[in-house]
Design brief:
The chain has twelve helices and 21 strands. The protein has two domains: 358 residues, 3-Layer(bba) Sandwich (FAD/NAD(P)-binding domain); 54 residues, no CATH class. It is globular, with a radius of gyration of 21 Å. 27% of the residues lie in helices and 23% in strands. Helix 1 crosses helix 12, helix 3 packs across helix 6 and helix 3 packs across helix 12.
Length: 447
């Protein structure tokens, strides 16, 4: 079975000399970094985006491809509503087919208790006038051709979207470049240059860029980079396995989750499949921040499995250096792309569970499989904030598996934060200080 369709042997799309100066430097070429750069460029602000590997080579291309309002945390929902609108606008602007379709998201309920749990979101959906609705057992069965299992019911939001992540984010990067963003792949940021408590530049493996403003949007690598500068965030990374089937007859045009498997129709005629669990490697940060994660663990005790140590070079590996200098190779160059192996037992389980759910498929052949490292926070919502201790430093990380869908909304918000404009949404829930000011950790939805 072929692996995830990305290789460091692929040609670099974005290269060139490092500029001497830039109004803003963005560290990280995922969906958050790319869309922030794009919105800044629309305001004629000079932006340099540096990526240690390739654009969207990590979680921004490895996610499920869901763009959903359904099931969102109450504080994320206004931003993702904006993001859904922006996805449509940006897809038209970039002029490329990114597989964007309004085919809906459905959550399947195994029990009446689960159905009752959906009522919490229904109240939120009503407040924002969403088209979300609850379906009974018979209505749920009618959504899927040949489904073998009877569910208690479901929750469905028909206006939710899907897209192909490995097409979408690179397409947005090309749009950003056309708008004037300088994007440099295969160029790691090593350290910030800080003078009298203020950002004055970024040291990269290719030299120094003078700037007064930096956004760290490095996904699973953000915590490691920030800790070098005395900024501690309780971010961990969990491994999630995903697979794509060979083309199959359509049994559902959108995305759905439940019955131990999540699935989404793909542009190529197959389905993206994923299990309901993920794996956490236990490293120094996992132990350092363990108590902050207890509320989420208690709320969702069976969603995480554990391994004693991460592979060498991973952000929270025991062997990964926590200290380095600007003039020597950093951990970010030693691992250009975080490319975890998919878990064989998970692949077998999702293929088996999908086939049981739709027995008309005598065999479900997987044409490719991959895994990604999801940057997670203890309350399952991100950090989107400026760092008060270092003037000019901003952070947008810890999207907790929700970053692809909400990406353009967060990008627009962060671009306005950087400019000193009103962000248009209440960001109090996403403040950096919530982990140190004595606030109670309140976990958001797990899916």
């Amino acid at each position: 079975m072929p692996a995830f369709p990305f290789s460091l042997n692929d040609p670099i799309q974005h290269h060139g000399p490092l500029p001497k100066t830039s109004d803003v430097v963005i560290i990280g070429g995922g969906v958050i970094g790319v869309t922030t750069a794009l919105f800044l460029a629309k305001r004629k602000i000079s932006v340099t985006l540096i990526e240690k590997g390739r654009i969207a080579a990590e979680q921004s291309s490895r996610n499920w491809g869901w763009i959903r309002k359904q099931g969102r945390d109450a504080d994320e929902l206004p931003i993702v509503i904006e993001a859904c609108r922006l996805w449509k606008e940006l897809a038209a602007e970039c002029g490329e087919d990114i597989g964007l379709n309004e085919t809906g998201v459905t959550y399947l309920a195994n029990s009446d208790k689960q159905m009752a749990g959906f009522e919490t979101f229904m109240k939120l959906a009503s407040a924002y006038d969403l088209d979300t609705r609850l379906l009974d057992s018979g209505q749920t069965a009618s959504l899927f051709k040949g489904i073998s299992r009877k569910f208690a019911g479901s929750m469905k939001t028909p206006s939710d979207l899907r897209a192909e992540p490995w097409l979408a984010v690179p397409a947005l990067a090309r749009l950003a470049a056309r708008l004037g963003v300088t994007i440099i792949e295969n160029c790691a940021a090593r350290t910030l240059d800080i003078s009298a408590g203020e950002v004055s530049g970024v040291w990269t493996e290719a030299g120094r860029i003078e700037t007064s403003t930096v956004l760290v949007a490095g996904g699973a690598w953000s915590s490691l980079f920030l800790r070098k500068h005395g900024v501690s965030i309780p971010q961990l990374a969990v491994r999630a396995t995903v697979a794509a089937t060979e083309p199959l007859p359509e049994i559902h045009a959108g995305a759905a989750g439940g019955a131990d498997v999540a699935f989404r129709r793909r542009q190529d005629g197959g389905y993206t499949l994923a299990p309901a669990s993920h794996r956490l490697y236990l490293g120094p940060d996992a132990f350092r921040h363990a108590m902050k994660y207890m509320p989420a663990l208690m709320a969702h005790p069976f969603g995480t499995r554990y391994s004693p140590a991460a592979p060498e070079g991973y952000p929270d590996s025991w062997s990964t250096p926590r200290n380095w200098t600007a003039d020597a190779e950093s951990p970010f160059e030693r691992m250009r792309v975080l490319n975890p192996a998919p878990e064989q037992s998970s692949l077998e389980a999702i293929s088996r569970n999908f086939q049981r759910l739709f027995p008309q498929f005598e065999t479900v052949r997987l044409k490719t499989a991959w895994a990604g490292m999801i940057d997670a926070m203890p309350d399952i919502v991100p950090i989107v904030d400026r760092v008060e201790a270092i003037t000019g430093l901003f952070v947008a990380t810890g999207m907790s598996g929700h970053g692809f869908g909400i990406g353009p909304g967060i990008g627009r918000v962060v671009s306005d934060l950087i400019q000193g404009n009103a962000p248009g949404h209440d960001l109090n829930r996403f403040r950096l200080s919530r982990f140190t000011d004595g606030s109670r950790i309140r976990p958001g939805p797990a899916i």
